[in-house]
Amino acid sequence: MFNKVIVANRGAVAARVLRALREQGIRSVAVYSEADARLPYLAQADETFCIGAAEARQSYLNQDAILRAMRACGADGLHPGYGFLAENAEFARKVNASGARFIGPSPEWIDAMGHKTRARELMARHGLRMAPSSGLLDGDEAAALKAAHEIGYPVLVKPAAGGGGIGMLAARDPDELRSAIERAASLSLRSFGSAEVYLERLMHKPRHIEFQVLADRHGNVRHLFERDCSIQRRHQKVIEESPAPLLPRGLVNTAADEIVEVLRKLSYDVIGTVETLHGDGAGFQFLETNTRLQVEHAVTEEITGIDLVKAQIRLASGERLNTVLPEEIAVDGHAIEARIYAEDPVRFLPSPGILKTLRFPSGTGIRIETGFEEGATVTPYYDPLIAKIIVHAAHRQAAIDRLIEAIDGTVIEGVKHNLPFVRRVLQNEAFRRGDVHTGLATEILATASQKA
After folding, report:
1. List of residues 6+ apart from 383 with CB closer than 8 A
2. What integer pLDDT is reported at residue 432 of this predicted model?
3. The domain that contains 329 carries what CATH number?
């Protein structure tokens, strides 16, 4: 097991990892930028290091600064959280080469799964179903138009090195395709340092279903069921839940078992989430594998009783899966998470500022994950996530009602926020009956605009 772990992240995820380290008796080190120097979660760490100015490239994306801090404090482990350097294979290799250990999958897996087209080719060779797609587009317009024609419009232009929905653009005809490829390549280059894009068929009202997996470094892999992440705006998840509503358990478990078998054959390790789309009568179709802890990991924790962060740390230290997980894991009730952002609730643009009032409810079945407190500042430099509100109840309708109550008990003043949007989704009839898909949030917003 690790003696001291440095947490190379910020906000809610840093607070979450620090808590897990403290509960395991592992000394912790928190890094922070100048903009985050006064955030409350830093007090949870045994040591803190300032790693640079506010801009992410000078701090949380500054590999050299983080590695210097790691060496200075004598940490033998580094937890990357999610975002920033969590899926950077080069950084993971540098951590491991220093004599410490990167708390995540092996760099080879981060590299293999980080490039979307190569990951799709790998998983397809091992039998996972894929939505029709192209290879990498090399700038040949005629070839791109031919590929789109063969796939069938509408298509989605996607960055090969991307994630988080950034740079994903729909095209319904050749004219839209030309523009979408140019824009997606530009966005991808700015965000991921690569302009490589490819095409994928745009499914009609699909559901976004992802499968949580844990694995050791001895060839063992298990799944911890699924999460439904269909409620999105601009390809960004907002509400996640588990189990997925209105999907037969047998169908879901079969898909999860197939994924586990593929990852076992490949000797995948530590932690990962396999994302799929479900719909169009084609079952579960592979999208990508995220080689990290997910933002929405808490809903899985709530229905299984498994602390995923602690499990990730133990597996990265070399423990076997059968010592980390119980022999039997069952689904207990229903959990839903809402991401609360400092943003305009209509245009979804960031709304930085001082949190003049920040109050959250407490009580049975309510869990709050945040890196802020009243009086703290949401800066314009990073993702504007204020908190995650997670609820757990005996069944889905009770969980929805509990989350509405929690939303109503949350008070945020000083910045704009998306609480009204989240509440609108939770009250929507289609959502309440479980008829969810990736376009539902857009439909709800459109209906609200028409009524306004």
Report:
1. 11, 83
2. 98
3. 3.30.470.20
- CA distance linking residue 311 with residue 143, whole number of Å: 46
pTM of the model: 0.94
Claim to verify: residue 253 and residue 359 sit in the same structural domain: yes
**Tell me, what's the pLDDT at 451?**
65
| Orientation of helix 116-125 relative to helix 107-114, angle to 10° | 100
Q: Are 101 and 316 a contacting pair, CB within 8 Å? A: yes
Please indicate, yes or no, whether residues 222 and 180 belong to a single structural domain of this protein.
no
Q: Is 111 a domain residue? A: no
Residue 161 has a pLDDT of 79
Task: Name the nearest CA neighbour of 129 among 224, 228, 221, 259.
Answer: 259
- The amino acid that residue 75 corresponds to is A
Extended beta strands in 27-148, E state: 27-33, 47-52, 77-79, 101-102
Tell me the backbone φ, ψ of residue 428, rounded to 5 degrees.
-65, 135
Q: Which amino acid is at 208?
A: H
End-of-domain residue from the set 86, 103, 120: 103
Q: Choose, from 27, 120, 207, 292, the residue flagged as catalytic.
A: 292
Return the pLDDT at 452: 54
101 noted as active-site residue: no
What pLDDT is attached to residue 421?
Answer: 95
Identify whether residues 79 and 143 lie together within a single domain.
no
Residues 260, 407 share a domain: yes
Residues 289, 431 within the same domain: yes
Domain count for the chain: 3
Buried b (16+ CB within 10 A) or exposed e, 358-368: bebbeeebbbe
Q: From start to end of 243-348, where are the E strands?
A: 270-278, 284-290, 334-341
pLDDT in the model for residue 347 = 80
267 and 157, same domain (yes or no): no
Ranges of residues in the chain whose predicted pLDDT is under 70: 163-164, 448-452
Decide if 112 is inside a domain: no
User: Is residue 114 situated within a structural domain?
Assistant: no
Q: Which two tokens stand for residue 250?
A: 């047998």
CA 259/CA 253 separation, integer angstroms: 10
Question: Do 370 and 265 reside in the same domain of the chain?
Answer: yes
**Residue 98 · residue 68 · CB < 8 Å:** no
d(CA 118, CA 129): 15
DSSP 8-state secondary structure symbol assigned to residue 350: B
Instruction: Please indicate, yes or no, whether residues 151 and 264 belong to a single structural domain of this protein.
Output: no
Q: Within a domain: residue 250?
A: yes
d(CA 338, CA 148): 35
Residue 180 belongs to what domain range?
132-201
Residue-level pLDDT at 166: 81
Query: CATH code at 95?
Result: 3.40.50.20
Q: Is 346 exposed, middle or buried (0-12, 13-18, 19+ CB in 10 A)?
A: middle
pLDDT, position 446: 86
Per DSSP, the three-state class of 31 is strand
